[in-house]
Design brief:
The protein is of the alpha+beta class. It is about 35% helix and about 25% strand.
Length: about 600
């Protein structure tokens, strides 16, 4: 069979198969054109999920007759002035969108430049370009797309229902609106509820726009991300670790203003939250990454939905560092959902708490003056067993009370003062305007874990020698795994050696664990080593090993605490980053405002 040149209309329909996947793809391309044209106001109207009608009106720079004619031809663009694909600074650049859309629909474009007496209009129907005629409109461009895929029935039957296509269009508009807070965006139509996001400017514009689109709940439970590393600028909002969702659909990523789904960024977020989120839960965030245009290739996907970084490792490091820094600055703050769930559980006939998110206190970190006013702090020695505030009852507490801890002084501390311990695991505390419930094991587990990480970052975790080594009998395969990982375990303060044929001897354990049950600790570590099944995995999973150790070194459920020990726990929580959630992502405390309690008793 001889080679032949395809006809133009078939070429355009093939191109449309790559560029125009569904109505949402059309909306994305047309909105990007409007933004590239400098529009400050964009109005989108749809019908039938976008299959029947898509109309987009903007107040951008508009087009004259010459540009209007070229706009519907293939590979014609105003966005590559120097034909340099390594220096792309606009959202669109290929010049395929309008030609592809016109090949599979009835396309109408009306446009007017600022100094023109009137506008101009051109129509394209299934690839056939009509004449240019006068049109009356204000400065800017109005594009209508009707009967999408009317000449491609195979593509039409693969579209989803009206509701699904409408939702996809909404998602595209949301993503572009989030990245462009200075643009007023309206979305309406017979197939949807109207959305209207006024333009916002100033220093808080991004936060305000994200609140408009993602909801005030997200903004209230998110921290600002703003950092630069290796020439990579990372900014946006990252949800608190206890403010999570059941999937990753609420994670939004942008590279140089372009909405993308990128494996490097997704992996970086997963790594940044690895210590904090509950299993099978996903953080909520909107992350904006800026790099030099030559350091990112945006021309790797027909719909421009993916990018390729020149230095993916540097980008990953920058994102992890930026999110980690933002979460650390949040201190002990946690999300505001569990308080609502707890209040519902208290009500007569109230619903059971959900797992949609977790709650916490959002007050400012206490000042040192306030701390000194009621508790005198003594920094524990690095060799001291555990957190000295929670050593054996005969040991001195890290925080020595100068006043009666059960007294009236509660307002000096965000987490208040301890009032009682219930069920030998939960501390009841009171602040000026709230009742606070603390899970002593979960909270102390996080404190021990953070101390472990701090010590590891400083070089090596301090250990304490046992006067008599603890001998533990184990199967041969478990002994081999432990001995193979011995070097990594020594950096964590755990020293083991073979003892006979079927046992090991534990000679030193991490000082941070205090008087932990060594046999249970080793059994837990053996389970982890068996699961990972390689020495390389062990070296990469030190954080997981630390987590297992922290669990064994923390105050156990069922342990009765003295008042000074309970208050010492609260004070350390206030000064420890990420203490609003345990290492498994569960909340460490719940705060019920006085107003919440009054509503429960009908006193509001």
């Amino acid at each position: 069979m001889s080679i032949r040149r395809l006809p133009d209309d078939l070429i355009n329909r093939i191109a449309a198969g790559e560029v125009v996947e569904r109505p949402a793809s059309v909306v994305k391309e047309l909105m990007e054109n409007a933004l590239d044209a400098g529009a400050t106001r964009i109005a989108i109207t749809t019908a039938g999920g976008g299959r029947d009608l898509i109309r987009i009106v903007d107040n951008g720079s508009g087009m004259d007759e010459h540009d209007l004619r070229l706009s519907v031809e293939r590979h014609a663009t105003s966005k590559l002035s120097h034909d340099d694909l390594d220096d792309i600074r606009s959202l669109g650049f290929r010049g395929e969108a309008l030609a592809s859309i016109g090949a599979v629909s009835k396309l109408s474009i009306a446009s007017r430049i600022a100094d023109a007496e009137s506008g101009l209009k051109i129509e394209v129907r299934n690839g056939h370009i009509g004449d240019i005629n006068p049109a009356g409109l204000n400065r800017g461009t109005m594009i209508s797309v009707e009967n999408l895929f009317e000449n491609v029935p195979a593509r039409l039957k693969f579209l989803k229902g009206v509701r699904a296509e409408t939702s996809a269009v909404t998602d595209v508009v949301k993503r572009l609106a989030m990245a462009n807070p200075s643009v007023h965006i309206q979305l309406e139509g017979s197939d949807r509820q109207s959305l209207n996001w006024p333009a916002v400017d100033g220093g808080g514009a991004l936060r305000e726009r994200l609140g408009q689109v993602m909801g005030a709940d997200f903004v209230a439970n998110a921290v600002d991300v703003a950092d630069t590393r290796h020439g990579v600028v990372v900014r946006g909002l990252a949800g608190l670790p206890t403010f999570t969702r059941a999937n990753s659909l609420h994670q939004y990523f942008y590279v140089n203003g372009r909405s993308v789904r990128d494996k490097v960024l997704i992996g970086a977020v997963k790594a940044a939250y690895a210590d904090f989120t509950f299993r099978d839960r996903f953080p909520v965030l909107a992350l904006f990454v800026a790099v030099e245009p030559e350091d990112v290739d945006v021309n790797v996907h027909p719909a421009k939905a993916e990018v390729r970084f020149r230095d993916p490792g540097g980008v990953r490091s920058a994102v992890i560092n930026a999110i980690g820094k933002a979460l650390s600055e949040a201190g002990y703050r946690a999300s505001s959902h569990v308080a609502d769930d707890a209040a519902s559980a208290f009500r007569v006939g109230g619903a059971s708490p959900t797992t949609s998110g977790f709650s916490g206190y959002r007050a400012e970190r206490p000042s040192q003056a306030n701390l000194d006013a009621e508790y005198r702090y003594t920094q524990p020695s690095s060799q001291q067993a555990g957190f000295s505030g929670f050593a054996e009852p005969s040991a001195a507490a890290a925080y020595v009370p100068e006043t009666e801890p059960m007294g009236d002084a509660t307002g000096s501390f965000p987490l208040g003062a301890a009032r009682a311990q219930i069920f030998a695991n939960y501390i009841v505390a009171q602040s000026d305007d709230a009742l606070i419930l603390i899970d002593q094991h979960a909270a102390h587990e996080r404190l021990v874990y953070e101390r472990f990480k701090e010590a590891l970052n400083d070089g090596r975790v301090a250990s304490q020698a046992h006067l008599i080594p603890v001998v533990i009998e184990l199967p041969e395969e478990d002994i081999e795994r432990l001995l193979a990982a011995a070097e990594s375990l020594e950096t964590l303060g755990l020293f083991i050696e073979r003892f006979g044929e079927r046992a090991i001897a534990v000679r030193e354990t991490p000082a941070l664990l205090g008087r932990a049950d060594v046999q249970k600790l080793i059994a837990d570590l053996v389970d982890g080593l068996a699961e990972w099944d390689s020495i390389e995995s062990v070296s990469k999973r030190l954080d997981a090993i630390i987590g297992r150790m922290a669990c064994h070194g923390s105050v156990r459920s069922g342990r009765h605490l003295r008042p000074d020990e309970m208050n010492a726990l609260l004070r350390q929580m206030e000064q420890t980053p990420h203490s609003g959630q345990c290492i498994h992502g569960r909340p460490t405390y719940i705060e019920l405002k006085k107003a919440d309690l009054e509503r429960l008793f009908g006193r509001d």
